[in-house]
């Protein structure tokens, strides 16, 4: 099989990608700060898992609050690394010299949007878990998961649509 055309290009981040990174990182850091500020007020047991209705179905140590930020940080770092290597992403066979930059940029923007929306989701989830631990609410908001799923698919759908328009 012939090797596909995949040059390594240095395409600077767009202003919008930088803004999305700033927003995603800001939400993440603010949620960590919120956990730190509320730490002394938290009981020893906080929600550790939720069922499909958003109700707490397992309680765990408040130290479990560090799991989600670690997962979010891993996702952020992994996706940031993938953003720097768009030549490794999957592309249609029509990728060539004349359209390679458009494909790379579109793929990177799509990944950037999904990455930062995940960061925002993890930040919101951290705050809600603390709120439940402080007995300010008793379950996840019913809109949280459906809204997250819809919002995360927006960059994917937009990116795939834009990809289909690249000649």
Automatic annotation (TrEMBL):
Keyword set includes Secreted: no
Ranges where the DUF1648 domain occurs: 27-72
Membrane-spanning intervals of the chain: 20-37, 65-82, 117-137, 143-161
Pfam families linked: DUF1648
Keywords: Membrane, Transmembrane, Transmembrane helix
Domain of life: Bacteria
GO biological process: response to toxic substance
Keyword Transmembrane belongs to the record: yes
InterPro entries reported in the protein's UniProt record: DUF1648
PANTHER family for this protein: IMMUNITY PROTEIN SDPI
Name assigned to this protein: DUF1648 domain-containing protein
UniProt source species: Ureibacillus thermophilus
């Amino acid at each position: 099989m012939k090797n596909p055309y995949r040059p390594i290009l240095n395409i600077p981040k767009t202003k919008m990608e930088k803004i999305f990174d700033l927003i995603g990182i800001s939400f993440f850091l603010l949620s960590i700060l919120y956990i730190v500020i509320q730490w002394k007020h938290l009981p020893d047991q906080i929600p550790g898992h939720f069922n499909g209705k958003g109700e707490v179905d397992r309680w765990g140590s408040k130290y479990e609050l560090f799991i989600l930020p670690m997962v979010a940080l891993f996702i952020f770092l992994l996706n940031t690394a993938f953003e720097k290597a768009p030549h490794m992403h999957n592309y249609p066979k029509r990728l060539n010299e004349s359209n390679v930059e458009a494909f790379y940029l579109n793929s990177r923007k799509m990944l950037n949007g999904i990455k930062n929306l995940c960061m925002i989701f993890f930040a919101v989830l951290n705050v809600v878990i603390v709120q439940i631990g402080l007995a300010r609410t008793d379950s996840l908001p019913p809109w949280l998961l459906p809204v997250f799923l819809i919002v995360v698919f927006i960059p994917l759908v937009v990116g795939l649509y834009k990809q289909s328009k690249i000649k």
